[in-house]
UniProtKB/TrEMBL annotation:
Keyword field: NAD, Oxidoreductase
Residue span, Mannitol dehydrogenase N-terminal domain: 19-265
The enzyme's E.C. designation: 1.1.1.17
Position of the signal peptide: none
Protein name per UniProt: Mannitol-1-phosphate 5-dehydrogenase
Domain Mannitol dehydrogenase C-terminal as annotated: residue spans: 274-449
Pfam families, A to Z: Mannitol_dh, Mannitol_dh_C
Family from the record: Belongs to the mannitol dehydrogenase family.
Superkingdom of origin: Bacteria
Single GO MF annotation: oxidoreductase activity
SUPFAM superfamilies named in the record: 6-phosphogluconate dehydrogenase C-terminal domain-like, NAD(P)-binding Rossmann-fold domains
């Protein structure tokens, strides 16, 4: 039997007017911000125009379904299915004309971003590196009027210029990428790009655009062909673009919304004055444990988070790292509401959900970048407090072991990693540590500590 394609005639969810623009249409945005927007009590007033990044595929597929998709919440006890309709336009990111149109519309109040960490292009000084090839190329295109920008950052700045020219008023940019102080990162990137192109635009942005920091959380593994078939069998329609996610979700936001926002708190979003403790809780406890399991688990022969967590050696390493991280989260009035013991218990339950196939190889990507946020701050804090930081050092050591032991190991600084791996002994450890954090690499005691942790997982495949 030929089942119907998911569409708004089949599922009559009214199309809300576009008031949110999203850059970086992907699975996480759909499982998180789009889901929160649909759950808001005033969802009927808040439609999303979502633009892809480098490829149009996701927009093409969703456009054929009127923006609808199925969110599959995968719990240990079974799956539940929800049709999400908050995306009312799914657009190829290269369609600059449509992007500038919706950004210039007075009704547009919010821009959300999931464009990945690398897209912000900040240098070691926290400012935009305008000499980076992609940034320089976009600035040249805008300066010569000979083509549209190709990067999400360039496209956003061009669209903000259109809003300024239209006199459409202020709005909020909400960074939902997984990095510390992400609102500040977005502000520096946008201001740096605008300032390099048009200082008047940079001044307008400084006055009219707020940058909201967030901490986002929902495990969203890649959708497989089996998942697509499972939705079809369970729901009785065809959906080319379902999203699989764990039942848990979290969204913490801090910042101003000068043109309004949806009532995301209806779905459990939390609005706070100081987001840093929540960022660190998530980056260290959840993301840090993920990275540790990704490296240790693969060295032990595991392929998913649930498998690695069931390995006593991996579990012991996670608990030790959590103890170090917790020691640097607790004890102040600002962190009194973090409920860290309950958070740790919830993480164990989430990680142990074997029906969420969260692949270690996927988590392990971009390790040198991730370790700077997940392991390095804990190691530095522990050393500053007079403690060893051995558990955080073990995470870095496991990454080092993976860099030489795993075929197809990928890292944004792959050339530097390969050069370091051509060395031996302490020289190799110091060179690899320099890829992650040069200051730590200059500390002989840290080099010795990390070197002593190398090999803890390598050569010890899990039994069975």
């Amino acid at each position: 039997m030929d089942l119907p394609l998911l569409n708004r005639a089949l599922h009559p969810i009214p199309k809300a007017p576009v008031r949110i623009v999203h850059l970086g249409l992907g699975a996480f945005h759909r499982s998180h911000q789009a889901w929160y927007t649909q759950q808001a009590g005033d969802a009927a007033n808040w439609g999303i125009a979502a633009f892809t990044g480098r490829r149009p595929d996701a927009a093409t597929a969703l456009a054929g379904q009127d923006g609808l998709f199925t969110l599959v919440e995968r719990a240990d006890t079974g799956d539940s299915f929800t049709v999400v309709g908050s995306i009312v336009e799914a657009v190829d990111g290269a369609d600059i004309q449509r992007l500038t149109e919706v950004m210039a519309a007075p009704a547009t109040a919010v821009v959300t971003l999931t464009i990945t960490e690398a897209a912000y292009g900040l240098g070691s000084d926290g400012k935009l590196d305008i000499s980076a090839p992609e940034v320089a190329a976009d600035l040249a295109r805008l300066g010569s009027d000979q083509g549209n920008p190709a990067t999400p950052l360039g496209r956003l700045v061009l669209a903000l210029a259109a809003r300024r020219d239209a006199g459409a008023g202020p709005l909020a940019v909400v960074c939902c990428d997984n990095l510390s102080s992400n609102g500040t990162v977005a502000r520096e990137a946008v201001a740096g790009f605008a300032g390099a192109w048009d200082t008047g635009l940079a001044a307008w942005i400084g006055t009219n655009v707020s940058f909201v920091s967030t901490s986002v959380d929902r495990i969203t593994p890649r959708t497989t062909g089996e998942d697509v078939a499972g939705v079809q069998a369970a729901c009785g329609y065809r959906d080319s673009s379902p999203v699989i996610a764990e039942p848990f979700s979290s969204w913490v936001l801090s910042g101003d919304f000068p043109a309004g926002r949806p009532r995301w708190e209806d779905a459990g979003a939390l609005f706070v004055e100081d987001i840093e403790p929540y960022e660190n809780r998530k980056l260290w406890l959840l993301n840090g444990a993920h990275s540790l399991l990704a490296y240790a688990g693969q060295l032990r022969g595991h392929s998913t988070v649930a498998e690695a967590l069931a390995d006593p050696l991996c579990m012991q390493a996670v608990e030790a790292f959590w103890d170090e991280a917790e020691a640097n989260l607790s004890g102040t009035e600002a962190t009194a509401d973090l409920q860290i013991p309950a958070y740790r218990a919830a993480l164990l339950a989430r990680f142990g959900n074997a029906r969420i196939a969260h692949n270690l190889a996927q988590i392990a990507l971009d390790g040198s970048t991730k370790l700077r946020m997940r392991a390095v701050p804990v190691l530095q804090a522990e050393r500053a407090a007079g403690r060893s930081g051995a558990a955080a050092a073990l995470m870095i050591a496991a990454w080092m072991d993976c860099s030489s032991a795993l075929p197809g190991f990928q890292d944004p600084l792959g050339d530097e990693v390969a050069a370091a791996n051509s060395l031996a002994g302490a020289g190799r450890v110091r060179a690899l540590l320099a890829v992650v954090d040069p200051a730590l690499a200059a500390d002989d005691a840290v080099v010795e500590l990390v070197q002593g942790q190398c090999g803890r997982f390598a050569g010890h495949p899990a039994s069975g």
